[in-house]
Design a protein that fits this description.
about 725 residues, alpha/beta, seven-stranded parallel β-sheet, six-stranded parallel β-sheet, globular
C-alpha cells in the first residue's frame, strides 16, 4: 500500500524479467511493495502434514507430505511401441489419507532418484481424479531435507508459509522471491498515526511484514494479521471519510415541504398508515433534505418493505419545495412499472395541468429509450418547463438532451446495477448538486455497507407492511425425488384453481446462439446439460403438467411493447402462469401471484433467489416458493438452497451468501486493482475492526482533512486510489 522508492522498485529489476513477467500476468504483482503485500494464505508446520483427505478437486494445491512408496512401471504406447514407456507412481501420505503422484516419460528419472520412501517434501499441482482416486499429475516438488543450513536460510523456523500460487509459479518460488525483497520491508512507511497504533497496541508496519512472511511462532502470525487488517480497514475508511467530508462542503438547496401542500394531500389519500419503520426512515430523509448540503443516503430494505413509498414521499416533498425529482430504474419493465404504480398511488395528484387534476397536482412523466418521438419530445418539454415535478426513467435520463428546470433529488433504484459515472451524470443535471437517495432491495450486512457504500449514510427498513403474507419455501430435489417435481406442478394448478397466479423462473431464454468455441463452466461440464430455458420449459408445461392453463413467457429480448403487454395481462389476471427469466427479479408487483417455481435454482445467487421469492405473497394470500434443483444432497449448492428455504431474513441470507462467496464478489469492481483488494480483511468476520476503523478515520479526517501531518497515510491512500481509482469507492 505504502509505496516509497525502495518499495516502488519494479520486480523485473530485482527478480529478473522471466519471474517478474509471471508475477505481473498471473498475480498482478509489479513492484517490491506489491510482493510484500502478497500474504501467505496459510502456514504448514514443518513437523505436521497437510490433510490429504480434504483436498479440493480441480484446484491448484500445495501439500506437505511423506513418500510412502514409489513404483516404476513400463508400458507400451504409440510413442513407445516396444513397451519402453515409463510411468512413475508415487504414493504420499499424511497419516489421514493417501494421494497418488504420477510422472511420465523422460520426467520420471529425477523424481525416481529423489522421492524415496520416507522422504518429506512439499508438492504442488492440480488435483484430478483417475480411476476414482485423487492424483496429482507431474507435480512440482521441493524436498524438505531439514539440514541445518537450508532450514535456517529458507524457512527460518518451523512455520512454512503457503502463498496463493499459480501453475506457473509454485508457492515456494514465491516464498524465495519474498525472501529476496524482505529487507526492503524496513523502509515501509507506516500509514497509521502513532497515537492510533500505540493506543491499540499494534506492531509497526515493517515488523508486521517480517512476521507475516517469516513467523517464528503462531503469535507472530497473529500480531502481523491484526496489524495488517487494521491497515486495510483504516486506509479504506479514511478514503471514504474524505469523500463524505468533501461532499459535506458542497452547497445544495434545502428542500422543505409546504405545510399543506402536495405531500399532505398525498398522505391524506393513503388507504393505510405507514409502518413505524417507514415513518422513522422518512424523518431521516426529510431532515437531510432540509439541510444546505446534498443528502447522500442509502435506503436498504427487505423485498416488499415499502421502499418505493418512502422514496415517493421524499420526491413529493421536493416538488412541494419547488424542485423536481428523478427516479432512475435499471430496466424499462421496472421504469414502466414504477411509473404506473406511482401514478395510481397519486391519483388526481399526478394530473398536474389536466382537467380534473387537484390544485396541488404535478405531472409524472416516463422517459425510456424505446418511447416514440412525440411522447419523448413532450416528456423532455415537461421537464424543462417544470410542468413535470417527477420523472421516472432508465439511463435514457442521463443523455445530454435531457434538461431539468430545477433538479432537487435523484433516487437511484437498485444501486448495484448502476456505475458511479451514471449516478454522477444525473447529479450533474442540477444547478447545484441535487440530493441523492440510493435504494437497494439486496440487504447488505452493515459492515459491507460501511466498506462499499461508506460515503452514504444508511437507513434500513426491516419490517414488512401490514397485509403482507408469509412465504413458505421448499427445496424440490428433482433428481433424487422426481415425484416431488410432479407434485410442484400440481401445487401450481391448485393455486390457479383457487383464483391465484404463478411464476416459473428459468436461468436462460432459449433462443441464444450456442457458440461452439465458448468454454463451458465446470458446472455445465458436470451437468452435461445447459441451464433450463424459458422457451423450452413453457413449451413442455403447456403440453404437459399445466395443459389447459394460460401460460405466457417474458424475457429481456422481447420488444418493450410486447413485454409491457405481457405484464399488463398478467397483472390483470388474464394469464395464469408467467414463465420468465430474472427480468421479474426487481419491483414486479402482482399481489394475486402466490406461487413461484424456480428451475435450476442452484444456478442463482442467494440474494437473487431472495429477490425473486419476494415477488409472491404480496397480497393477502400466503406465498409459496419452490426451489427445483438436480444437485446432490451433500453439495454446497444444496446447502445454499436449504439456507434460502430456512429463513426469510434477507440480512441473514446476505451474511450466509458472503461467507460462502467471500467478499471479493460483493466488493466487485470496487476492489479490482491488484493493490486495493482486501487481502487480510474478511468483511463479515472483522466487523468490529471495520466499525472502529470508521470511527478513527472520521476523527482523523475531521481534524486534518488534507492529512497534512500524516505523509505515510497520504502515500497509502495514493496507492489505494491510483489510476483514476478515486471513483472506485462509489462503484456499486
Amino acid at each position: 500500500m505504502d509505496l516509497v522508492p525502495a518499495l516502488e522498485e519494479p520486480l523485473k529489476k530485482v527478480l529478473g524479467p522471466p519471474t517478474a513477467k509471471v508475477m505481473a500476468e498471473h498475480l498482478g504483482l509489479h513492484t517490491v511493495g506489491d510482493l510484500l503485500h502478497h500474504y501467505p494464505r496459510r502456514y504448514e508446520e514443518r513437523g505436521q502434514l497437510t490433510h490429504l483427505a480434504d483436498l479440493p478437486m480441480d484446484e491448484h494445491v500445495t501439500v506437505v507430505a511423506q513418500v510412502a512408496d514409489a513404483r516404476l512401471h513400463t508400458f507400451a504406447s504409440a510413442k513407445a511401441p516396444r513397451g519402453k514407456g515409463q510411468r512413475l507412481e508415487v504414493t504420499i501420505t499424511d497419516g489421514s489419507g493417501r494421494l497418488q503422484l504420477v510422472f511420465f516419460g523422460a520426467g520420471v528419472h529425477k523424481p525416481h532418484k529423489e522421492l524415496l520412501p520416507g522422504t518429506r517434501a512439499m508438492f504442488a499441482g492440480k488435483v484430478s481424479v483417475f480411476n476414482r482416486r485423487l492424483q496429482l499429475a507431474h507435480p512440482a516438488y521441493e524436498l524438505l531435507r531439514g539440514d541445518a543450513e537450508e532450514t535456517v536460510e529458507t524457512w527460518a523456523g518451523a512455520l512454512i508459509p503457503i502463498y496463493p500460487a499459480t501453475a506457473k509459479l509454485e508457492s515456494w518460488k514465491i516464498g524465495k522471491a519474498i525472501q529476496t525483497v524482505l529487507p526492503s520491508a524496513q523502509e515501509a512507511v507506516d500509514p497509521l498515526p502513532d497515537s492510533l497504533r500505540d493506543g491499540r497496541g499494534l506492531v509497526p508496519l515493517p515488523e508486521a511484514l517480517l512476521k507475516i512472511h517469516r513467523p517464528h511462532t503462531k503469535a507472530d502470525i497473529e500480531d502481523a494479521r491484526s496489524r495488517l487488517k487494521w491497515d486495510e480497514a483504516f486506509v479504506l475508511q479514511v478514503a471514504l471519510a474524505r469523500r463524505r467530508h468533501a461532499d459535506a462542503q458542497l452547497p445544495a438547496v434545502a428542500r422543505k415541504p409546504k405545510a399543506d401542500g402536495l405531500l399532505t394531500a398525498f398522505d391524506a389519500r393513503l388507504p393505510f398508515t405507514l409502518t413505524e419503520g417507514q415513518q422513522k426512515v422518512s424523518k431521516e430523509i426529510f431532515d437531510d433534505l432540509a439541510t444546505e448540503h446534498p443528502m447522500h443516503r442509502l435506503l436498504q430494505g427487505e423485498v416488499g418493505s415499502g421502499k418505493t413509498m418512502v422514496a415517493l414521499r421524499a420526491m413529493l416533498a421536493v416538488v412541494d419545495a419547488g424542485g423536481q425529482a428523478a427516479m432512475l430504474a435499471p430496466t424499462e419493465v421496472l421504469a414502466q412499472q414504477h411509473h404506473r404504480s406511482i401514478v395510481e398511488m397519486m391519483g388526481e395528484l399526478a394530473e398536474g395541468g389536466m382537467l380534473g387534476g387537484s390544485e396541488h397536482a404535478t405531472k409524472v412523466v416516463l422517459l425510456t429509450g424505446s418511447m416514440g418521438t412525440a411522447a419523448r419530445r413532450q416528456a423532455l418539454l415537461d421537464l424543462v418547463t417544470a410542468d413535470a415535478g417527477i420523472v421516472i426513467g432508465t439511463h435514457a435520463l442521463i443523455e445530454d438532451k435531457v434538461q431539468f428546470h430545477d433538479l432537487g433529488l435523484v433516487v437511484v433504484d437498485e444501486q448495484h446495477r448502476f456505475g458511479v459515472e451514471q449516478r454522477d451524470a444525473l447529479r450533474g443535471k442540477g444547478k447545484q448538486p441535487p440530493h441523492l437517495l440510493v435504494m437497494t432491495a439486496t440487504p447488505i450486512p452493515r459492515t459491507v455497507a460501511m466498506t462499499v457504500f461508506g460515503d452514504l449514510e444508511t437507513s434500513v427498513l426491516d419490517q414488512l407492511p401490514a397485509g403482507r403474507s408469509p412465504i413458505a419455501s421448499h427445496v424440490v430435489p428433482a433428481a433424487d425425488k422426481p415425484h416431488f417435481l410432479a407434485r410442484a406442478w400440481e401445487r401450481v394448478r391448485e393455486e390457479v384453481e383457487n383464483g391465484h397466479q404463478g411464476y416459473v423462473v428459468c436461468p436462460r431464454i432459449g433462443d441464444e446462439e450456442v457458440d461452439p468455441k465458448k468454454k463451458k463452466s465446470p458446472e455445465d461440464e458436470a451437468e452435461k446439460r445447459p441451464p433450463l430455458a424459458v422457451l423450452d420449459v413453457a413449451d413442455q408445461l403447456t403440453k404437459g403438467p399445466l395443459r389447459g392453463l394460460r401460460v405466457e413467457v417474458l424475457h429481456g429480448r422481447m420488444h418493450p411493447d410486447d413485454k409491457d403487454a405481457v405484464m399488463r395481462r398478467f397483472a390483470a389476471g388474464e394469464t395464469h402462469v408467467l414463465v420468465a427469466t430474472t427480468v421479474i427479479e426487481v419491483g414486479v408487483n402482482v399481489p394475486n401471484a402466490t406461487a413461484m417455481v424456480i428451475m435450476d435454482a442452484d444456478r442463482f445467487g442467494v440474494s437473487q433467489l431472495h429477490q425473486l421469492r419476494g415477488r409472491v405473497g404480496r397480497g393477502s394470500a400466503a406465498g409459496l416458493c419452490l426451489l427445483v434443483t438436480e444437485m446432490p444432497e451433500a453439495s454446497p449448492a444444496r446447502q445454499r438452497l436449504n439456507a434460502v428455504a430456512s429463513t426469510l431474513d434477507g440480512f441473514e441470507l446476505s451474511r450466509i451468501d458472503l461467507e460462502q462467496r467471500r467478499e471479493g464478489d460483493v466488493l466487485g469492481q470496487a476492489q479490482s486493482g491488484a493493490r486495493t483488494s482486501l487481502r487480510m480483511l474478511a468483511v463479515i468476520e472483522d466487523e468490529e475492526i471495520i466499525a472502529e476503523a470508521r470511527e478513527e478515520a472520521a476523527a482523523v479526517v475531521a481534524a486534518d482533512p488534507e492529512l497534512a501531518d500524516l505523509p505515510g497515510l497520504r502515500t497509502a491512500l495514493d496507492a489505494l486510489l491510483d489510476d483514476e481509482r478515486e471513483q472506485y469507492l462509489e462503484k456499486g
